[in-house]
Amino acid sequence: MSYYPPYGQAPPPQTGGYYQQPPTGQYYPPPQQGGYPAQPYGAPPPQQQPPYGAPPPGQYGGYPQQQPAVYGQQPPYNQPPVQGYGQQQPPYGQPGGYGAPPGGGYGGGGYAPAPVPPTPPSIGYAPQSINWDATADANALRHAMKGFGTDEKTLIRVLADKDPLQVDAIRTAYHRLHHRDLVRDIESETGSWFEVGLVALCRGPLLNDVHMLHQAMSGPGTNEAALNDILLSRSNADLRAIKALYQQTYHRSLEDAVRSELSMKTERHFMIVLQATRAEDAAPVQKAEVDRDVQELYNATEGKVGTDEVRVCSILSTRNDNHLRAVAFEYRQRYARSLEDVIRKEFSGHMEEALLFQLRHATDKYLHQAALLEDAMVGGGTRDRLLVERVVRVHWDRSNLANVRGAYEKRYRQSLAGRIRGETSGDYERLMLACIGERV
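^ Annexin, sequence as received from the core. Prediction below:
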């Protein structure tokens, strides 16, 4: 794999390292995500966070809880209070304890976790309308493609700074006003990676996910990176929306499509993912269950001859990011090695990449997205389709984009915009830069 500089190792704190070794008898929580300084043009500033690797104020000794992100506003529900590390926890199997996915409990006994608010779908993954007039933009797009020649600058200007709900409104208005399909018009008027990027923007995140999944599993071979990008570490609500639209669009279940492309234990891994039974983001992290999973992971890997792949896949696919971040932290404390190193040693191929994807997303989702962008550009030749899809995916949430740009600059000591300029050209370059908030 040609990913990026050693991701899970612990560099000195000033270089953005992972976990600092706490003094004896003290416990630092895993690092907060976010707080990266760089901001794209026109983006709201990200919420300030404590220094990377430092315990947040008032939570010394407690695992930090990530707040579920709702586009453009605060979460519509109250988060449960943070459970302090080392506080008295409910016994395993009783209400209030962090536990297993629905349908039988992890470890048996019919355990059902206490109800928690479901993670809301990402913007564009649930039916929603906005009070916004898309007429001017729809007319501008038609004018840019009507007659001889195409006004590429207008296409970029209109589409590159819109959120998913605005794009949906533009696509609907375009059809209503001009009795034409916006995606088909763009496909007929543009070409190459510029076309791919514009089409991804016009479809919006959900419809584009469905199309990219179908494309990843069509023809010879399987685009495993696309499966990872679209399906892993997603909320239950997003996965259910993807599965429903895939079935509606292609008249085949997504599970059946994935089964036809994968095999053996990698197939079982993705079937666990597609069950959409991941712990919701609001589920509290409890030390007893963190310790239990740390022990389970050790017993499934280093603690036995051979590897219990399904047990590892189950834990990484059914726990939320807060819990997995705590597990990774505790694993290092207990066994003096990173969980990422264990995965690299015990697994290979697509399963290794998928497990590392889930772990890295939980550890720091912004740094992980930055690394995925770099992976599309590093080495000989640019993996253009991956770059386009990853830039567009990051672009949909401007607050997320601000943190990804900051994480990229901190990790690679250069701006994301400068890196993209070195790998692209022409209208393709201008579109990618506009998607990350640059003036073009």
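The domain at 364-440 is CATH 1.10.220.10 (Annexin V; domain 1).
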